Amino acid sequence: MPPLAFTYPGGPLVRRHGPSGYSDVQSFRAWLRDEFSFRCVYCLVREQWGKRLGEFDLDHFEPVASSPEASLEYDNLVYSCHACNLRKGKRQVPDPTQALLESAVRVHLDGRLSGLTDDARRTIAVMGFNSANLVRWRLTWMRIIDICQKNDPELFASLMSYPDDMPDLSTLTPPSNARPDGIGRSCYAQRERGNLSEGFIA
Ligand SMILES: [Zn+2]
């Protein structure tokens, strides 16, 4: 079992939302928060671990400098913490929605990561995921989650659950939406229907 807080998704991301036509990148934020389960696609830090203004960025997977035409394409945007966005910068990394999977990244109990595929290994190296600071950060959170799970169920539930301010995507009006059915499968809509699980792992 990988550490609970750092389980990468079980399979490649199949996008459920497809808004388009916005003239500014921030209009995609609500869609991306839901699409990426309110956590950073790279390091898995969660909004619930302390969301502060500016903590999460909308990262252009293909850098704008090399693909200016993709700057407002939803499928080129990923939800990333500010630190990972800075670390990535303009460098090319394999698509994290395809490369950073549970089957491709082994999370060790000492906080280190190892890649089981070329793309995962490359991402870990380029992003500096095994730097001393990041390993210490990961280990700290593994211990916090573990202690809470055993001793503080309320805090555990809070740290591992969805945020209170999930967006109601049905109220948004993008100029067009290639995947409108995804709104009904958003976390907000699932919670309204009472079938959103309490905690979530991936
Ligand atoms: Zn991150």
Automatic annotation (TrEMBL):
Residue ranges of every copy of the HNH domain listed in the record: 40-91
Single GO term (MF): nucleic acid binding
InterPro entries (UniProt xref): HNH, HNH_nuc
The organism's place on the tree of life at top rank: Bacteria
Keywords annotated in UniProt: Endonuclease, Hydrolase, Nuclease
Name the UniProt record assigns to this protein: HNH endonuclease domain-containing protein
Organism: Rhodopirellula maiorica SM1
